[in-house]
Design a protein that fits this description.
By secondary structure, the chain is mainly β. Helix content is 9%, strand content 34%. A five-stranded antiparallel β-sheet has the order 4-3-2-1-5, with no helix packed on it. A hairpin with a 4-residue loop joins strand 2 and strand 3. The protein starts with 8 loop residues before the first strand and ends with a helix. The C terminus is likely disordered.
Length: 257
């Protein structure tokens, strides 16, 4: 009975089988057919099949569960005598063969007289560390998105980014926005502060300072009302006008003084 069948992945064991370098020991191939004399294999990168003795090839190991660059966590299956411990995280630097094919490097850790900070482990010793979501926006970016409580879209500049286990959240002046509902905001009519005349009509400044957040505009209106006693200021937003509420703020300032 043939040792290999069509489709099997095999590895060459002998350098003397070399043809232009692609049949050297360690070269991988796929069995194309197997007759009563010897199998025919197609080496990776080649198109024609070569006859080879069964004793000159061996089954290739399955594809690795990990790849170079993966972040992994040490499991409690590591022997107690090894210098690294369960829970530690590392990066796979190199993949070889054998029982411990993964060479892993530990961040900022040096061990031994030569400062070695690497270890060798197998599949049973490590697990993949789930990567945290990468934030799409940075502090200062103008974004808009649905707030979980308000039930409507909020627009404002990002003032804090918090990356959790599964989601990234962005804090703007009016609250938190979760990844998945946040997008870059297109320029919209800004919130501005206007002085009100005796009849309540707006007298906007020749060069008003625009706010993308109503909360920020309201703060400016309250500050102006405190700075100019007797004057009235209002926040003009798209489709709405709201006069600054200064009574409570004024009392608080007087008490503090």
């Amino acid at each position: 009975m043939a040792k290999f069948k069509k489709g099997d992945r095999v590895r060459s064991l002998k350098d003397e089988n070399t043809h232009d370098g692609f049949m050297a020991a360690g070269s991988l191939a796929t069995v194309d057919e197997n007759n009563s004399i010897c199998p025919y294999v197609i080496f990776d990168g080649q198109t024609c099949a070569w006859a080879i003795h069964e004793e000159d090839i061996e089954p290739a190991k399955p594809a690795s569960n990990f790849k170079v660059g993966d972040r992994v966590r040490i499991l409690d299956t590591v022997p107690s005598g090894w210098w690294f411990e369960p829970g530690m995280e590392a990066t796979i630097d190199f993949i070889d063969e054998g029982e411990l094919p993964y060479q892993i490097g530990f961040d900022g850790i040096s061990v031994g007289f030569d400062g070695i900070s690497v270890g060798f482990v197998g599949d049973v010793h490590i697990e993949l560390v789930e990567t945290k979501p990468q934030p799409h926006f940075n502090v200062g970016d103008l974004v808009t998105g649905e707030h979980w409580m308000y039930g409507g879209d909020l627009t404002g500049k990002v003032i804090e980014v918090d990356v959790g286990c599964e989601i990234a959240e962005y804090r703007i002046a009016d609250g938190w926005l979760k990844t998945g509902t946040v997008k870059a905001a297109q320029p919209k009519p800004a919130h501005i502060v206007c002085l009100l005349d005796d009849k309540g009509s707006p007298k906007p400044s020749a060069s008003p300072h625009p706010h993308y957040s109503e909360a920020e505009a309201t703060k400016e209106a309250e500050c102006l009302a405190l700075k100019h006693p007797g004057k009235r200021f209002a926040v003009y937003s798209p489709g709405a006008v709201r006069e600054a509420e200064t009574v409570t703020t004024t009392k608080a300032v007087l008490k503090a003084a």
